[in-house]
Amino acid sequence: MRSFKTYIPGAIFAWTLAVMVSCTPGSCFEKTDALLTASFYRNDAGKLQPPDSLTLFGLKMDTNKIYNKTLNVQPALLPLNADTTSCSFVIRINGITDTMTFWYSSYPHLVSMECGYTFYHQLVDKPSVTDNIIDSVNIGNRNITTLDVENIRIYY
Known about the structure:
mainly beta
């Protein structure tokens, strides 16, 4: 008959293995931010071309810049606020400033059990824009999700 002491190492090993397998936390490796993707096009050539310099921030939020004199940005990623139905941005392309306003609806979307929920958005109207350097803004895809898809084209 075996003594109790011979079973202790096996029990400790089994307990350690059970704890390691059962207590592994789920990790989120998926993209969770739904950002509006804006590509830049030269109006005279109609081809994809990043601006030499881009500064972008929310209207009345100039201390919190998304891009600050950043070179060759293509595409620009703009965060939308799920608590409102519109967002306005100040955009400075090559030193010339315009203002863009987007109207959208937001809805929750389950990314995964590990990542939880995020908000997706849908553009409901064409963005309004001042015309200092930006000639036009065209919507390519109204659905703003976590996928890397061009949502709008900015012609300057």
